[in-house]
Design goal:
This protein is mainly α. It is 72% helix and 0% strand. It is built from 3 helices and no strands.
Length: 75
Amino acid sequence: MSESEFVRRCILFNKLIIVTGLDEVLTELRRQGNNLNQLTRMVHQGVLDEVNMTACLEEYRKIWQTLNSLQSHSR
């Protein structure tokens, strides 16, 4: 299914919930994605042998909690 088809189906068959204030969350997700990409490149290049993902996982947990909180408040 194409992206445009997905959007059309969502609009036609689902209740739309507009959530404002996600700019900070999306910015943090982009930063974390960038960090993950850099680490992956370094491992593939042999610069790093091992990566401690504890800090990244903690940030993902915080972002997940924020998104879940927004979702529960929008219902």
